[in-house]
Amino acid sequence: MKKTVVKHITGLLDNATLHQKHLYKKYSGNLAWVHRSIASDIKHGVKESEVLDFLEKIRSSNEFAYIRNKEGSLDRLDLVRIHLCTPMPY
């Protein structure tokens, strides 16, 4: 779950290859895919409070300062939090 969230929030590198851009668009950049992945992790034992705590840790901890410095990362972080709080129809 942590790896998926960090990949989505970080975004692409400036010098990403076409293959990296394709994979990012297909998986990490697709908010619905990230939401399904987190929902699957919750289904298999991760608590929703752990996910919210991790999102808060990304927002406030110095450990993830490199993520917050990326352009648009805080917007993507907010979108993940909004989508986590709304149930996904299956």
Give a quick set of tags describing it.
90 residues; 6 helices; single chain; mainly alpha
Task: Write up what this structure looks like.
By secondary structure, the chain is mainly α. It has one domain (2-85). It has helices spanning 2-10, 18-28, 31-43, 48-60, 65-68, 73-85. Helix 3 (31-43) crosses helix 6 (73-85). The longest helix is centred in the middle third of the chain and has 13 residues, at 31-43. It is globular, with a radius of gyration of 13 Å. The two termini are 20 Å apart. The model has no long low-confidence stretch (mean pLDDT 89).
What is the chain-wise order of helices and strands? HHHHHH
Count of DSSP E strands?
0
The whole-number mean of residue pLDDT values reads: 89
The rough form would be described as globular
Individual helix count: 6
Tally of separate domains: 1
Quick structural gist:
The chain is an all-alpha fold and 90 residues long. Helix content is 70%, strand content 0%.
Task: Please describe the topology of this protein.
Elements: H1 2-10, H2 18-28, H3 31-43, H4 48-60, H5 65-68, H6 73-85
Helix pairs in contact: 1-6, 3-6
